[in-house]
Amino acid sequence: MKLFLDTNVLVDHALSRITGQSNEAKFLLSWALENEIPMFISSASFYTFTYVLQKEGLKNNDLKTRLLLYLKILKVCNSSTTCFVNALNSGMKDIEDSYQLQTALAVGCNFLITNNTKDFKFSNATNISITSPYNFLTSILRKTKGRDF
Predict the structure, then answer these.
(1) Average pLDDT for the chain
(2) Measuring CA to CA, which residue among 25, 13, 17 is closest to residue 136?
(3) C-alpha triplet 65, 69, 75: angle, nearest 5°
(4) Counting Cβ atoms within 10 Å, is residue 27 exposed (0-12), middle (13-18) or buried (19+)?
(5) Confidence band for 144, pLDDT divided at 50, 70 and 90
(6) How many CB atoms lie within 10 A of CB 71?
(7) Which fold has domain 3-141?
């Protein structure tokens, strides 16, 4: 199992936003770490994540320390030209989300976890599940109850 985290999940985790699913994001990252489930983000997500943390007031060593902690648990993947071309030709309305999806597919992720599942509803990708942190946790914990990973 491989998880791809959309930028909004990272931001919810780091900032405990009440507008998202911050508790679910915290549980999800803890669960994945505990079960040694690889978690991926795009390099674009890391840029945006850094920008948001800076805007929220993290500076200098505090910012670097926080970012280094995330880099210990997340795998950052680059998007290729093929990812961008596929995204532009996908028919999805939100092109940035399409970039994220194509990057997740290129890495072979089984799940793309986002708070904006509606933005992915026109995706024709069949070999990846697009779900929210809450729905992922509800589903995976129900399926794995009593089993170890």
Answers:
(1) 89
(2) 25
(3) 135
(4) middle
(5) low
(6) 12
(7) Rossmann fold (3.40.50)
CB 3 within 8 A of CB 38: yes
149 pLDDT tier (thresholds 50, 70, 90): very low
Whole-Å CA distances, 30 to 2, 10, 74, 91, 133:
15, 13, 12, 34, 12
CA distances from 77 to 50, 52, 86, 107, 139 (A): 16, 19, 17, 8, 26
3 sits in which H/E element:
strand 3-5
* pTM score of the predicted model: 0.89
Task: Tell how far CA 114 is from the center of its chain.
Answer: 6
- At residue 141, the pLDDT reads 74
Q: To which residue do tokens 């509803």 refer?
A: 121
Residue 65: closest CA among 25, 30, 14: 14
Share of the chain above pLDDT 90, in %: 69
**Integer Cα distance of 74 and 93 in angstroms:** 28
The string of pLDDT tens digits covering residues 1-48 is: 999 999 999 999 999 887 778 889 999 999 999 999 999 999 999 999
Question: Taking the domains of the chain in order of start, what are their residue ranges?
Answer: 3-141
